[in-house]
Amino acid sequence: MRLPALLMLASLVACAPADTGGSMSTADSQAAAAEIEKTLRDAYDLSKPGLTERMLSLYPENSRVISANSGRAITSRDTLDAGIRYFWDNVGVNMRNPRWEWERFWIDVLGPGAAVATATYRVPHLNPSNQPHVIGGAMTMTFARRGGRWVIVQEHLSDLPQTTDSSQTSMQPHDHH
């Protein structure tokens, strides 16, 4: 009777999430949240050159990344890279005067090595016909601290639904970001 209980306990311990490094002070948690927010703001700043490279720098180079969007999930950094480049090279290029506007951030620092961030955003721009258009949505990202920096190890992106009224926010479906 004891052996099954011990085996069950051992399997629960093995399946438990990794220790995130213990508790943090409020100041350390706030500093980590501020660093994550700044990292996202810098990566998505459409006024600076190198957008796709900055976006890709949010993800670890040599480990799995899970990205869920539009009812699909990918687990390959190469596929994520291709999706980001495809969107900005084929759709984003048609946006005139785009501005990435973060509406709100919610960041929970779980420990020195883990955090979860949810943010809403919008990207007002002019379409190729010089008509105002806005895409936007929400994203939830799980961050891990690796190599001295915060990287996204899992994410879920949710686009705003399309509207037919041009005076409201509308969204064209896309694969990533």
List the helices and strands and how they pair.
Elements: H1 2-15, H2 26-43, H3 51-56, E1 66-69, E2 72-74, H4 77-90, E3 101-111, E4 114-126, E5 132-146, E6 149-159
Parallel strand pairs: 1-6
Antiparallel strand pairs: 1-2, 3-4, 4-5, 5-6
Task: Write up this protein.
Strand 1 (66-69) and strand 2 form a beta hairpin. It is globular, with a radius of gyration of 19 Å. The chain has helices at residues 2-15, 26-43, 51-56, 77-90, and strands at 66-69, 72-74, 101-111, 114-126, 132-146, 149-159. Residues 1-20 and 165-177 have low confidence and may be disordered. With 177 residues, it is of the alpha+beta class.
Features:
177 residues, alpha+beta, Nuclear Transport Factor 2, Chain: A, 6-stranded mixed beta sheet, 4 helices, 32% strand, disordered C terminus
Mean pLDDT: 84
Supply the number of structural domains. Answer: 1
> Segments where pLDDT lies below 50 for 5+ residues?
1-20, 165-177
| Biggest sheet overview | 6 strands, mixed
Task: Compose a concise summary of this entry.
The protein is α+β, with helices and mostly antiparallel strands and 177 residues long. It has four helices and six strands; from the N terminus they run H-H-H-E-E-H-E-E-E-E.
